[in-house]
Amino acid sequence: MTRYRFILCSLIIVPLALGFGLPAGRVSTENPFPMSSGTYWIYRGTVRWTHEGSDQISDAPITWRTEIRRVIQHGDVHGIVVGGFPFDSAWSDEQPKISDSLLLESKGKFYLIGDERFEQAVHRLEQSSDSLDGILKDNDLVLEWPLRKGQKYCDADGMARPDGHYCWVVTSSRKASLSGVAGVESAERDEFVLEYWTNPDNIRFTFVPEVGITKYE
Prior knowledge:
The structure is a single chain. The protein is mainly β. It has one domain (4-216). The chain contains two helices and 14 strands; from the N terminus they run ββββββββαββαββββ.
């Protein structure tokens, strides 16, 4: 089997279809990120990587599904278990390693928890007597509503940096049409681009309120 090292790796996905776990034509507007069980996104994109021991670059087309598997309510904290959330999945041998993540919303802030913290966080959310102290961490923030161009959010160390690195930054906003995406009306919608830069890499995604992530790179 060919082995790969992801020293140079990029993934770009754009939506093919969006389905809501609600009656036809109804979209929940309680949160800017859809949070209804059964909601799913199907993306198409390309993943690129370098081969181990060489500078050869390869790419492969992919189709990706992200789905809300479960909704958990704990006081004023809304939680959803998401399968295949783009930020929280690994890549190997051209194939995604799908995992479950927990997206928490409280007072307009959205926190993403995965990996070894996922199961414990879900268990705590299920316990009505748990105060959830310490579960909402600023370094888990992925979205803070409402969005505006130039907005920056992250933990205290990142906020103190003058270069804007290690924070999510809203780099642009515009009106855009999602024509060609099944399940979404093609009317103009607000679209925001958010970026997260570190010294070795960066993440960029596009977000449309009430629709979700419409591009990830």
